[in-house]
Amino acid sequence: MAFNPLDQKGIAVPDQFRNWSELNTTPYDKHTVDPYTRTRVILMNGAEVESILFSHQFARHTDHPELKRALAEGRRADAQQQRAVNGLNPGEQTPLETTIGYEQVAVDLTSWLARHEPDPYLRQALDFALLEDFDHLYRYANLYELLHGGQADEITQHLTEITPGRPTFAEHRHPNDDIRRHFETHAVDPLSRLHVMTITAAEQQTMNFYMNHGADWIEPIARGLYAEISLVEEQHVTHYESLLDPLDSWIAQWVFHEYNEVYLYWSMLQQESDRRIKTMWELHCDMEIGQLQVACDFMRRLEGREPADLLPPALPEVPVTFEPNKDYVREVLATQVDLQADGLDFVPVRELPPDHRYFIYQKTVNAGGNPSEQVIDENRAHSGRDYRDETEGDHPITDLRHVHAS
Amino acid sequence: MPTLIPTAATGARSVPATMTVVDPARTLPPEEQERFLAGTELNGPFVADLLSDMLAHERCGAQLYRSVAQRTNNPVLEERYRHFGEETVEHVAALERLITELGGDPAYVSPAARATEKAGTALLESTFLLGGSVDLMTLELVMLDAVLLAEAKDHANWSCLAAMVEDLPGGQVREALDAAVDEIEVQEDEHLRWAQDTRCRMISLQATSSPATSRSMKAEDVIARIKNLLT
Lengths: 406, 231
Prior knowledge:
Helix content of chain A is 59%, strand content 2%. Chain A has 14 helices and three strands. Chain A has helices at residues 20-23, 35-59, 65-86, 95-116, 120-148, 153-156, 190-213, 220-241, 250-271, 275-303, 307-310, 326-336, 357-365, 371-383; strands spanning 182-183, 339-342, 345-348. A two-stranded antiparallel ribbon of chain A has the order 2-3. In chain A, helix 2 packs across helix 7 (190-213). Chain B is mainly α. Chain B has a single domain (27-227), classed as Ferritin. Chain B has helices at residues 30-35, 44-71, 75-101, 111-125, 136-166, 172-207, 211-216, 219-228, and one strand at 20-21. The two termini of chain B are 34 Å apart. The A-B interface holds A 61-65, 67-68, 118-122, 181-184, 186-190, 192, 245, 247, 249-250, 301-306, 309-310, 312-313, 344 and B 4-9, 12-14, 16, 18-27, 62-71, 109, 114, 117-118, 121, 124-125, 128-133. Strand 1 of chain A pairs parallel with strand 1 (20-21) of chain B, so a sheet runs across the interface.
């Protein structure tokens, strides 16, 4: 049955505040958690962080007292939600184990969005970055084995394959080649808007996590790998945020943020296998509906616009779903691994002229070698092979198949 | 009911640009752009973009009037804002009819319309984003300023269209444009004149009031004073 958030009661924002005990949530057990519960926690943490940061930015562009108060109230409720969600991550789960969860989010969220994306350019943008995040999972999995003797498949539970994607060293592009075209806000399919907002939030959180946790390490190889990959994540934030149409007003962006949060919590609760966490998704969904109502009220009062005219009549029928995407990833790998960006477009790397800024930038940042290559070399030397979890057979690209240590 | 916010659900279409990508399924194809007003003396694609631009301006105007009518504390202004807002919604409908009659698509959002909408959005935002640093009396002027600026462009749009029609040979296109201009231009004259005159009256009233009274008044007294303005 169609679910229209505008028809729901939700929880009024003043009734959303919780006490410290309620916010200090009991973490999941890292040994028994469904890997896709972990990915849902990571995604929703990212969605909340994006919402909070957006609200702060909006607040810095207005001194309208009622608007500022409403933004502050909604932001505080979101900040509490973020603490409650992020608190589900257990302290015994190391930053590197959480990182592997982040990359599982990146692979299976991006793949799912791409599979359901109606716009070919936006789908191409998703596929392009998918292969880069896919490679990051492989690099971090090797770091995990090298430093801790850990097997990343114990975290991913074989739901996501672990093998090279577009090699990380090749992902470092000149900033001008990370900018993309944006959708047109009137003509865009509502599903595309939700996809772009979701992936932007997820990648931004990944960037934030890596750029802050890179300094947690003593081992230079780990510090270097986090520095290298966190900068690719910065590229991905640039890449995805450029897909958003800058035409929308501040209030329209606020409404869209709240709407997307409703969609995401509604999606998460459809699939959640952990009853306790499902209860949190339900609660937060109702809270977001309450926050959406506030944003819609300001749209009516200050912009003279009826939100129902702007928003789709119901949420998309299919919830955002975490599920294996192995065949899809393999297909994209087989057909697009050699793509690079040239300005706003994607082209095979062989078509770039030798003096293209891509190669100049590559020469600059890769001059002293790459932690992303060193981690593989060191783990091969240490473990006798690089770490992979190829559940569906050999790598689809011959050149990227197993190389054993000599 | 005319479309005040074009979306995918209302059939909105656009065209790709340097930084804009549009799903092919929602793109106005070049051949359709070229077919518009083909065989007339007009540059069809340009006029399609212009009419879309004018439509965007009317849509922004309808929102602006609805917004300021809800927020003014002056009953005279409120009544005018509501009335002109209703007329502006009629202008949206008239433009949609005109575009359809000429063989175009009123759901088309041209690049020029996007730029106009950005200006309209900023104009509307200027009436509330800094609402905490202007007093209530000034806020009334800020809203009226926005109306005046919007009406100035609106008036210029219709005057320009009227002038363009005069140079056209007779025929179906001229008749359609003539009818639209006849229906709307008089109202646009009135909207602009009213906004200019009212702004001038508001400024004069403020300029000749006692500075001590306006600075030390309580909010409820200011609202009472605003209510009685222009009566």
